[in-house]
Design a protein that fits this description.
The complex is a heterodimer. Helix content of chain A is about 30%, strand content about 15%. By secondary structure, chain A is α+β, with helices and mostly antiparallel strands. Chain A is globular. Chain B has a two-stranded parallel sheet with strand order 1-4. Chain B has a two-stranded parallel ribbon with strand order 2-3. Classes of the chains: A alpha+beta, B alpha/beta. Strand 5 of chain A pairs parallel with strand 3 of chain B, so a sheet runs across the interface.
Chain lengths: ~220, ~210
């Protein structure tokens, strides 16, 4: 099986204008607010983690044709169907047709402020020394991996410089696949524009990504 | 409006909105019947992001940084703690980094892989931030993107784009506008726009605030 993300858009040739938006505009339809809330509430059951939900979204075949909350909703339905929590026939019927599956917890109204304020800290204690130091030159892993990853295509196989070390963070690639947290050192790696886009790149442009240690190799 | 960012969508907007409304309502009914969700929690979640957590939070952080040099330094050294001291913390803001714009360097923030965004200080991301045109273009042609927002920077200003590919979230501190000496934090906050804290805009000039 080949894993394909339809969400890795950096540097791609995508048509369409950027449409600025007033900052008091929150939702463009009532269902968008409900879709957001349903997604957060089901996330609150602990049935999957945020990396698994990003993976469910980015692999939707119709990703490019859907609006953002349509993507969220389709991914939510996919995650629940995979766990037999809600089946498509029930959404079509608008009622429960199969018995519920046990969930770890239910997000109650009274607990919402506390849960949002707490968030999910993904930093973990270091179990070993960091391999790279700030200022060191590194090269990113080249090529495709057959699972969810957070190294965008436009920086793969490129040389950059370690700009920051963030500590040890839950590794998204493993976490998304249900392989556990496998925490790793996380770095900000900065690339010169011309190393990404060639000699025609805008002078003085630099672009950084946050990269886990296993994405990186020491470079000259 | 909801579909501005994919104009090739083949559906009639009205019938589609109705279809999505029904689908979400059906889902909410099933999830409630199954006991997975508390419907009252949905209302609290929506109210939180509609009325409580939004870009005015970030504007207060920036205004304090402009007015208080010690807070400015703290924000640049440990943004998570400095921001939490004002009461803004939690989901999608667990690991914050602040970036100060200057004449020499202008910072812009994106998530090319999805829509990562610092919720506790900026609220939910605007549609354009999540859209394919912004995510694809800003890492390659940031000045072109700035032009779409009506912003032009001097050629001597270097641009640094931060792609939020992990759980670190970035807040841009725009440059303090001239002519605001002695202003209170409340007055200053009115000059701080959401877009200026993403890097697609600048702080407003005195007199331009709403």
């Amino acid at each position: 099986m080949t894993y394909i993300s339809h969400a890795d858009l950096g540097g791609k040739d995508v048509p369409g204008r950027i449409v600025p938006e007033p900052e008091d505009e929150r939702f463009h339809a009532g269902w968008e607010a409900r879709a957001l809330a349903l997604t957060l509430a089901m996330g609150g059951t602990g049935s999957w983690n945020i990396d698994a939900s990003r993976s469910a979204r980015e692999t939707l075949p119709a990703y490019a044709q859907m609006s953002y909350y349509e993507i969220w909703l389709a991914a939510l339905e996919k995650l629940m169907a995979e766990r037999a929590q809600v089946m498509p026939d029930e959404i079509a019927a608008g009622h429960m047709l199969h018995p519920p599956q046990p969930v770890k917890r239910v997000l109650r109204a009274a607990d919402v402020p506390g849960v949002l304020a707490k968030g999910t800290n993904v930093e973990r204690p270091a179990t070993g020394p960091a391999r790279f130091t700030v200022g060191q030159r590194v090269r990113t892993r080249a090529g495709h991996v057959d699972h969810h990853t957070r190294l965008p295509a436009y920086v793969r196989g490129k040389s950059g410089t370690i700009a920051h070390r963030h500590g040890v963070h839950v590794f998204a690639d493993a976490h998304a696949q249900g392989l556990g947290e496998e925490p790793q050192w996380l770095y900000t790696v900065v690339f010169a524009g011309e190393d990404l886009w060639g000699p025609g790149s805008e002078p003085g442009l630099s672009v950084s990504v946050d990269a886990w240690e296993s994405y990186l190799e020491a470079a000259e | 409006m909801a579909h501005d960012h994919h104009p090739d969508h083949g559906h009639d907007d009205h019938s589609e909105l109705g279809e999505m409304d029904l689908r979400v309502r059906a889902l909410e009914t099933v999830l409630t019947e199954k006991g997975y969700i508390d419907p009252a929690a949905l209302d609290v979640l929506i109210d939180t992001y509609q009325t409580k957590i939004g870009p005015r939070n970030g504007a207060r952080v920036v205004a304090k940084a402009w007015a208080d040099p010690a807070f400015h330094d703290w924000l640049l050294n440990d943004a998570t703690a400095a921001i939490a001291s004002l009461g803004y913390a939690g989901r999608q803001g667990e690991h914050m980094v602040a970036l100060a714009n200057s004449d020499e360097q202008h910072h812009m923030v994106v998530c090319t892989l999805c829509s990562c965004y610092p919720w506790p200080v900026l609220g939910l991301p605007p549609t354009w931030y999540k859209s394919a045109p912004y995510r694809s273009r800003v890492v390659k042609d940031p000045r072109g993107v700035l032009a779409e927002f009506g912003v032009e920077l001097p050629a001597s200003t270097r641009i640094r784009v931060w792609d939020s590919t992990a759980e670190v979230r970035y807040l841009v501190i725009p440059q303090r506008p001239a002519g605001t000496e002695g202003w209170s934090e409340e007055q200053l906050a009115d000059l701080v726009t959401r877009d200026s804290m993403i890097g697609t805009g600048l702080a407003l000039a005195p007199g331009a605030a709403p």
